[in-house]
Amino acid sequence: MYAVTPDDATTKTDDTPRLITTEVPDSPSGLDDGPIGEESPDANDRNPFSPRSDVSGDPLDLEQGLPDDAPIFKGARNEGDDEYLPLSTLRQATAARNLRTAAAPTPDAASLTMTEVTKRLRSLGFRIRSTGERDQAIRAFKTGWFKLGPSLMDGTVANSILGPKASKAIDLAYERDKDGLTTMSPHFSFIEARCKCGGNFTDCRRIWPTRQSVIAAEALRTTFFPRGLTPVSWCRCTGHNRYVGGASSSRHLKGDAIDIPHTVSLRRIKALGIFTGIGINRGDGNAQHVDLRPGSATAPTVWYYA
Asked: Where are the domains of the chain?
């Protein structure tokens, strides 16, 4: 028998698709709750939890200059000449070019002012009205950022410190957003994880997904939703959680619960071996809520929604 420990009450919850339309509409901030543009699946779309492979696609290189393993061809045409440059000459030219590239000044994203950082984070969907909220947003950005470049989690206590890598990542996410690309992970953007209260609760942090929930979302997407997955609900502030009738201990408050379209069976969700909490739609027997509560992924807590 499965333990019945529902994450949320069944009376009024955005975990239940029929009540999605009852959410408080967003304030006119210019941010759209609609789905983020999909990216076509490719060879790098692997399930990070699969025993067969991990997410090992090459991350975007945030560093400047030429890679150390750049190939050196055996010859190249000298402009305006029919002869090929000898290999020794080409190596010398390549070495000189590398030296010039290394010495040339390049834009340093770490020089972004806090005003510029605030602008970029707001554009990505974060709520910033004070220095404290700015630092909170930086921490949330660093936590959610996954596999779009070097890791930003350096293990230091002061994760709100804006280091060079975080600055470059924020700048890259900002540019990706302008190009219609995802900003948090290969298939998800920060704005998709935000609380859907629309900013109507003053203490709402807006966006705070845990790193493990982002990894889990990638696993769900690559395994079961190759055409794209738009989360129904992810982060949820205390006020909005109360408004929709969520349980006081809802994992949405922690940022490690995701409501999904209920098209995947309990058996298949369990087979992933990731989620410790699974809410099932009683009508069709498919999962509509998954979370990472303390517990066992091999024997998850399971409950049913009316």
From this structure: 1-26+232-306, 110-195
